From TrEMBL:
<feature type="binding site">
    <location>
        <position position="166"/>
    </location>
    <ligand>
        <name>substrate</name>
    </ligand>
</feature>
<feature type="binding site">
    <location>
        <begin position="110"/>
        <end position="113"/>
    </location>
    <ligand>
        <name>substrate</name>
    </ligand>
</feature>
<dbReference type="Pfam" id="PF02733">
    <property type="entry name" value="Dak1"/>
</dbReference>
<dbReference type="GO" id="GO:0005524">
    <property type="term" value="F:ATP binding"/>
</dbReference>
<dbReference type="InterPro" id="IPR004006">
    <property type="entry name" value="DhaK_dom"/>
</dbReference>
<dbReference type="GO" id="GO:0005829">
    <property type="term" value="C:cytosol"/>
</dbReference>
<keyword id="KW-0170">Cobalt</keyword>
<dbReference type="GO" id="GO:0050354">
    <property type="term" value="F:triokinase activity"/>
</dbReference>
<protein>
    <recommendedName>
        <fullName>Triokinase/FMN cyclase</fullName>
        <ecNumber>2.7.1.28</ecNumber>
        <ecNumber>2.7.1.29</ecNumber>
        <ecNumber>4.6.1.15</ecNumber>
    </recommendedName>
</protein>
<dbReference type="InterPro" id="IPR050861">
    <property type="entry name" value="Dihydroxyacetone_Kinase"/>
</dbReference>
<comment type="pathway">
    <text>Polyol metabolism; glycerol fermentation; glycerone phosphate from glycerol (oxidative route): step 2/2.</text>
</comment>
<feature type="domain" description="DhaL">
    <location>
        <begin position="426"/>
        <end position="619"/>
    </location>
</feature>
<dbReference type="GO" id="GO:0034012">
    <property type="term" value="F:FAD-AMP lyase (cyclizing) activity"/>
</dbReference>
<keyword id="KW-0418">Kinase</keyword>
<dbReference type="InterPro" id="IPR012734">
    <property type="entry name" value="DhaK_ATP"/>
</dbReference>
<feature type="active site" description="Tele-hemiaminal-histidine intermediate">
    <location>
        <position position="274"/>
    </location>
</feature>
<comment type="subunit">
    <text>Homodimer. Interacts with IFIH1 (via the CARD domains), the interaction is inhibited by viral infection.</text>
</comment>
Length: 622
C-alpha cells in the first residue's frame, strides 16, 4: 500500500490540539480522519499511514476514576461563589451563608452532563448540586448530605431529571430526611422523542429543558415565594416543556471507546443524554434539513401541540462538542424555522447547558408560555457559572491538596434481630464467597447484554459490589450470625460503593429483605426475604412483571416459592426460565425502556444477573 498524505506534522510535541488532513490510501481510496493529541501523542507515523482506528477516545483527564472529583475541584477553584460540602465532596454549595427564609433548591444526577447541575449553583438558581459518577446517579446519602446542608424552615425542593436511578436515590434520601415538613420532589420530564412508543412505567426522560425550569424556580425562591407556590409553578412549567435531541457522533466515557456505533452517513434523532438510542436514525443532511426534522417532531408532540401565534421560549443546547460556528448556523436555522412556522419567540437562549460528555449533537427545548411571570423569572438577576458568570475577579484560594474519598468504607451496624448458629453463619460465608467467584466469571457476559440496551456496566457494577463485600468479609466485619444485620450491611455496601440505579435497587431489595429476620430465622425466612425485596423494588422502581427487568426473574422465583411442592432447585429454575424469556419482551421500565425493540433481542442483563446469583447460592449449599 502506497500512502498519499497531506501536510506532515512539523513539530514533535505541539502544545495544542489539531487535526491532520484526511489521509487517502491508494488501494481503497478511504479517507482516514486522524486526531492528534497534545504532547507525546502515542500515535506513530506507521499507525497514521495504516489508518489504524484507536479504540479509546482521548480525553483531557488524568485518571478516569478521578475525573469527577477533579472536575468538581476545578469548578470550585475557578468560582469563588462555590464551595464543596464539608461532609461530602460530591455536593457543591453556595459559598454564601444559608438563608433561613428562602426555600432551598437542590438538583443533581450523574456527572458527564456539565455544566448541569453544579454549574447552576448560586444566586438565582440552586442552593446545592449533587454529583454522581459519570452517567450514574449519586447515592442517597450524598443527596441527604445536600439536604442537611441547605434545608431550612421555609422548605426544600429537590429537582430530578426523570431517570430511574435518580428517582430512586433522591426518593430514598427524602424518605429519610426529617429536617423540614416542607419537602418535595419535582420530576422534570421534557423529552418528546419517544411518544410513538407510548407511555412507559417510568414516563418521559428529563433533558435540557430542566435548565429553564430551574431558572424559574431559582428566581421564585430568591424573591421569597412560598414552598407550595414554587412546587406548583414548576410542575406547571414541566407540563408545557418539550425537548428533542440529535447527535452526529456518539459520546464516550473517559477511558472507554464510543458508547455506541453510528454509521457516518446516519444521524441519531431523539437520543438521551446517556447515549440511549433515540426514536430513529435518519440520513445525514445539511443543517436546514436536520433542524426541520427536529422542529417538526417537537411542535407536533402531544406535550406541546404548538400552534402559530403561540408564544415560546427557545433553548438551543450544545450536547458537548459542537463548534461555535455550527451553533451559530443552528441558531439561524432554528429561529428562521420558527418564524416560518408562525410562533412568537419571546426569549432565545443558546449555549452549553446540559451535555452528554463529548457527544457531537444538540437539543432544542421549547417552553410554551402560559404565564407571563415565567418570563420575569427567566430574566431576573442570577450569579452562577453556567448562566451568567459574574462572580467577580479571580481570587487566589487554598483548597486541600486532595479530596477525601466520596465513598464511605464504614459498614458498622447495630446488632439486632435473629441470631443463627455458627453452622448457619458458615453457610452464609460460603455462599457469599461462591457468589463472588461466579460474578467474576459472568460479569463480562452481563456487560455484553447490558450494552445492547444500556451503558454496558451491569456486570462491572455487580463485580464492584462483590469485591467490596469480599473485602469486608475477609476482614470479619460482616455479622454473619445476625442475618438482619448482615442484609442491612450488604444493602449499605451496594448503596455506598455501587451507586446508580443498580446500587439503589439492590440496596432497597436487601434492606427490605432484612425485615424477614427481625424475630427469628426459620425454614421460610429466606423466601420471605426474597418476597419482601421484590415488593420494595416494585414499589420504588415502578417496574412490574413483564417490563423486561430483574423483577421478572425475582417474581417468577417468588411465585414458585409459594407453591406447596416447591424446592430451592425449582425456585432457581423458575428465575432462570423467566430471565431467558425477557428476550421476547419489550422493556417498559429502566433505561432499556428507551431503546428500540431491535436492541432488546437478548435477555435482560438485570434479570440474568438474578438468575446467575441465585444459581450460585444454590450451588454453594451442595
Amino acid at each position: 500500500m502506497t500512502p498519499c498524505y497531506g501536510d506532515a506534522l512539523k513539530q514533535d510535541n505541539p502544545p495544542f490540539l489539531f487535526t491532520l488532513r484526511p489521509i487517502i490510501t491508494s488501494d481503497n481510496e478511504r479517507p482516514v480522519p486522524i486526531l492528534a493529541f497534545v504532547n507525546n501523542a502515542s500515535l506513530s507515523i506507521v499507525e497514521v499511514l495504516a489508518g489504524r482506528q484507536m479504540e479509546v477516545t482521548k480525553k483531557f483527564v488524568n485518571k478516569p476514576s478521578e475525573c469527577v472529583d477533579e472536575s468538581i475541584r476545578g469548578l470550585v477553584l475557578a468560582n469563588p461563589g462555590l464551595e464543596c460540602s464539608k461532609d461530602c465532596q460530591r455536593v457543591v454549595l453556595r459559598a454564601s451563608k444559608k438563608s433561613e427564609e428562602k426555600v432551598a433548591l437542590i438538583a443533581g444526577g450523574g456527572s458527564g452532563h456539565e455544566p448541569f447541575a453544579a454549574g447552576f449553583v448560586g444566586k438565582g438558581f440552586l442552593d446545592a448540586a449533587v454529583c454522581g459518577d459519570v452517567f450514574a446517579s449519586p447515592p442517597s446519602d450524598h443527596v441527604l448530605s445536600a439536604l442537611n446542608s441547605v434545608a431550612n424552615k421555609a422548605g426544600a425542593i429537590a429537582f430530578v431529571i426523570n431517570y430511574t436511578g435518580d428517582r430512586l436515590n433522591f426518593g430514598l434520601a427524602l424518605e429519610r430526611f426529617q429536617g423540614t415538613p416542607n419537602l418535595d420532589l419535582v420530576f422534570i420530564a421534557d423529552d418528546v422523542a419517544l411518544e410513538s412508543k407510548g407511555e412507559t412505567s417510568v414516563g418521559r426522560r428529563g433533558l435540557a429543558g430542566a435548565i429553564l425550569l430551574l431558572k424559574i424556580a431559582g428566581s421564585m425562591a430568591e424573591k421569597g415565594k412560598s414552598f407550595q407556590a414554587i412546587v406548583e409553578s414548576t410542575r406547571k412549567v414541566n407540563d408545557h416543556l418539550g425537548t428533542m435531541g440529535l447527535s452526529l457522533y456518539p459520546c464516550s466515557l473517559p477511558g472507554k471507546p464510543p458508547l455506541f456505533d453510528l454509521p457516518k452517513e446516519k444521524i441519531e434523532l431523539g437520543l438521551g443524554i446517556h447515549g440511549e438510542p433515540g426514536c430513529e436514525r435518519i440520513q445525514m443532511k445539511g443543517a436546514k434539513e436536520i433542524v426541520t426534522a427536529v422542529m417538526e417532531k417537537l411542535v407536533k408532540s402531544s406535550k406541546l401541540n404548538l400552534k402559530a401565534k403561540d408564544r415560546i421560549v427557545v433553548l438551543l443546547n450544545n450536547l458537548g462538542s459542537v463548534s461555535q460556528i455550527e451553533m451559530n448556523v443552528l441558531q439561524m436555522e432554528v429561529i428562521e424555522w420558527i418564524q416560518s412556522f408562525g410562533a412568537e419567540i419571546v426569549r432565545f437562549y443558546s449555549g452549553t447547558f446540559m451535555t452528554s460528555l463529548d457527544a457531537h449533537g444538540i437539543s432544542v427545548t421549547i417552553l410554551k408560555v402560559v404565564d407571563d411571570a415565567w418570563l420575569e423569572h427567566l430574566e431576573s438577576e442570577c450569579d452562577v457559572p453556567a448562566w451568567k458568570n459574574s462572580s467577580g475577579p479571580f481570587k487566589s484560594r487554598h483548597l486541600p491538596e486532595a479530596f477525601e474519598s466520596s465513598k464511605s468504607s464504614a459498614y458498622e451496624a447495630e446488632v439486632k434481630g435473629a441470631t443463627v448458629s455458627k453452622k448457619v453463619a458458615d453457610r452464609f460465608k460460603k455462599s457469599l464467597e461462591h457468589v463472588f467467584k461466579k460474578i467474576e466469571e459472568f460479569h463480562e457476559e452481563l456487560n455484553r447484554l447490558d450494552g445492547k440496551c444500556g451503558d454496558g456496566d451491569c456486570g462491572d457494577t455487580l463485580l464492584s459490589a462483590a469485591k467490596s463485600i469480599k473485602s469486608v468479609l475477609d476482614n470479619s466485619d460482616l455479622h454473619l450470625e445476625h442475618p438482619q444485620v448482615l442484609f442491612l450491611q450488604l444493602s449499605t455496601i451496594f448503596e455506598k460503593v455501587v451507586g446508580g440505579t443498580s446500587g439503589a435497587i439492590y440496596a432497597l431489595m436487601l434492606s427490605a429483605a432484612a425485615s424477614a429476620f427481625k424475630e427469628d430465622f426459620g425454614k421460610n425466612s429466606l423466601l420471605w426475604a426474597l418476597k419482601s425485596g421484590l415488593e420494595a423494588i416494585e414499589k420504588y422502581g415502578h417496574a412490574r412483571p413483564g417490563d423486561r427487568t430483574m423483577v421478572d426473574a425475582l417474581n417468577a422465583a417468588v411465585e414458585e416459592s409459594q407453591k406447596p411442592e416447591h424446592s430451592w432447585e425449582s425456585v432457581v429454575e423458575a428465575a432462570e426460565k423467566a430471565a431467558q424469556e425477557t428476550a421476547k419482551m419489550e422493556a417498559k421500565a429502566g433505561r432499556a425502556s428507551y431503546t428500540s425493540s431491535e436492541a432488546q433481542s437478548d435477555p435482560d442483563a438485570g434479570a440474568m444477573a438474578v438468575a446467575y446469583w441465585m444459581r450460585a447460592l444454590l450451588e454453594a449449599q451442595k
